[in-house]
Amino acid sequence: MGSAVITARAAATFEPVGRSVAAARAFVRDTLQGWGFPDIIDDAVVLTSELVTNAVVHAGTAADVLCVRADGGVRIEVSDRYPERELPVQNPGSRPGGLDREGGRGLLLCTALAAHWGVEYTSTHKKVWFRLDVDDRPAGTRSAGPALPAEALPPADSRVRVAVVQIDRSGAVSAWNDDAEHLFGYPADQVKGKPLADFAAWPHTPGTATGIAEALCLSRWEGSYGIRGADGRVIPVYASHLRVRDTEGAPSTVCLLVRDDERAVLQSPQRPSADANAGERGSADPFEVFIGSPAPDDLDGLLQRTVERARDMLDGDAAYLLLATDDETELEVRASTGLPSARQRFARVPVEAGAGRYGSARLPSVHDDLSAIPGAVPLLDDTGMRSVVTVPLKVEGRLTGSLGVAAEAPHRYGNEEALRLQFAADRIALAVESARLGELERLRRGSLSFLVEASDLLAGTLDRDQTLALMAQMTVPTLATWCAVYTIADQSSEPELSYVLHEDEDLIDGLKALLAKVDPPEPVPTPGARVWTAPAEAARAKDFRATLRDLGLTEPDRHHATASGISLATASAVGGETVVLPLVARNRVIGMLTLGKPTDDHFRQEILELAEDLSRRAALALDNSRLYSERTAISQSLQRSLLPPGMPDIPGVEVEVIYRAAGEGNEVGGDFYDVFPIRDGAYGFAIGDVCGTGPEAAAVTGLARHALRLLAREGFGGPAVLERLNAAILDEGARSRFLTLLYGELWPQQDGSALLKVVCAGHPLPLRLRQDGSVEPAADPQPLLGVMDDLELYEQTVTLDPGDVLLCVTDGVTERREGSRMLGDDGLTEVLTTCTGLTAGAVAARVLRAVERFAAEPASDDMAILAMRVPEHPQQ
């Protein structure tokens, strides 16, 4: 900045995250406001926003922002740590890139808005700077607020004390008034000549160098800090510093201080009043106090304090403040005092309520007597208020809200009060709008986070009941006090109440009973929330109240005694606004999401919009769970048809089967088994393995199992049965799969033994466990099925003596792996040797445990275990 004299500096560093851009804007705005340069704030914020975005978003590094105040202007520097990044190069003769381009826009804006700008490189940083010039103005000039006639300003409340402290150019106190002595406990002679810094508890803002000495040198400064009182306590104050010249022409500062909870903006000159009474009052009050505000990011606190100050300023009995919706068609009650605020909060009224100036919220209006015009101000119906004055809140000509003050007596307010209230509204409108936009931004960020989390939760389940529960739990209490979900099975079905939730668990049963007594809402596919009055009307029904009175129920009994299952507490819980959102998926209404508030409470528009977004996601999740449930039921039904209906009771032989299909949701895979009666005294058994897993393998499983039963009962022997099954598999053509199969026929014998004839077509050999613990194969290997046309198979005869076990398994058992190790035939034989004396069920269970413990990972292949044992002492 050449030879310009630097008078103030402020610096801050912002991390490479998205929220840093907003933080940088706020930093520059606050700094320039504190320096008294409101005229250049907008340009500075726009340029800073673009340059910080380039650093933290595009370059991906931290951004250092430095504000330098010097004679005639402000220089702002934005540095990032990406020195290799070059300036965007324009093609010769081309126009500069448009404002909708992705990169380089910040430099184009510098060209358009800044008096001077430039780029500097170092080995570690790249710095872009710009300078904004400001016009000279007299010392002490205040830029805040419009200039209004004295009679338009409100008088001071006698309870407000304003400390007036004057500080000379050396920073010492030169004047100390009576209110300052009252507030802080020091008489004037104890503080005059001492530095204000000895008494001020100045908050040091991280990243800035502005201290109390710098603030006292500014032409104007407003904010909060503390004053150490005579008793040693720090008293929080809200101050307005005005730079003036004393009687000798030397610069000094006048500090106007009130307690921080007043947050007042002060008008200092004493003004004459329009009439004698006002003149007497004006002469008694050297300062007039205007409505103040809390921190700008605390919207609810700001609005509540505004209505309280407005009521006190006009000596009213009630006051209220409404904020306009984005389209300026409705106003929403956001704060009130002297009125049932809980009942009125978020209630909505139209901006244009009728013809004429008194029917529009865009103009000030005064109602002398509301009893003469019933319904003129719906918010005041049945409140006892008779007179009311309302004024609009406007920012840059746009309606942002409405402020009203009411009194129980008629003819309390006139044009003078309307002018004073309008002045108040003009001063507070910008702060309210700023806080509202901040709240809206936080709400939208929270909404995005809420919807992301909701989507994750809904996507994490395909169970219908769990989806219904998640829908309700996500809305209560975040969006509503209670929730009910109705579902529609098909287009011909009536809506069914499927799930109910209330934030008070004791009221859920009563809420269900009440909703069961009213007709469900109509399944209208129109998007958006619509009001449903049936629950509130049912709760307020005369016969319902009469029933409660007949039972002798009073207010203290409302949480305990009930009438027809509905308590007074339940009636109160559903007495507020109730809305219905359709659950639409795949162009069909599959249900309704119903949200409710307690008595006379309302939903705010932002919540309804968030609920609408949630309902769309919930509808798709609910329909997906329905489709999944239907297809799962069909799949399970088909799979169960492929399994044997049950195990026959074979005299003198124990039989046990364990079957595990690989894959989630599969009950049948490529492995199969069967045990069935062939004719009197003869039984067939089979265990096989179709190549592959899943539904394709299961189809061949069904063919094999049914063909075995049919052929065996036709009288064919084992080899003939398998040869004909082989031909049937080959006839399937491209759908055929090769099959390993162990098939046998069993005849229990009179001596307690069992005769078996088996054919082992490419299957793992059956193992025979004798009573002495020895294990041996019970058959020889033969060719598998589904590969060759001509097979020459033969059967082998095996006799199981009492105490012997025949174990048949599929390769899912023997090929169980853990890394390079495999259980194999030897491992299975080793397990079987430990099963001497065990029943067939115990043998099968021990084999299964051995397989599961062999590897940590779940089995990836189907598995079937068939154990048959001849008891040592057969039952008679």
Automatic annotation (TrEMBL):
Keywords, alphabetical: Hydrolase
Residues of the PAS domain: 164-194
Pfam families in the record: GAF_2 (PF13185), GAF_3 (PF13492), HATPase_c_2 (PF13581), PAS_4 (PF08448), SpoIIE (PF07228)
Sequence segments annotated as region (Disordered): 266-285
SMART domains: GAF, PP2C_SIG
PANTHER family referenced in this protein's UniProt entry, alphabetically: STAGE II SPORULATION PROTEIN E (PTHR43156:SF2), STAGE II SPORULATION PROTEIN E-RELATED (PTHR43156)
Protein name per UniProt: SpoIIE family protein phosphatase
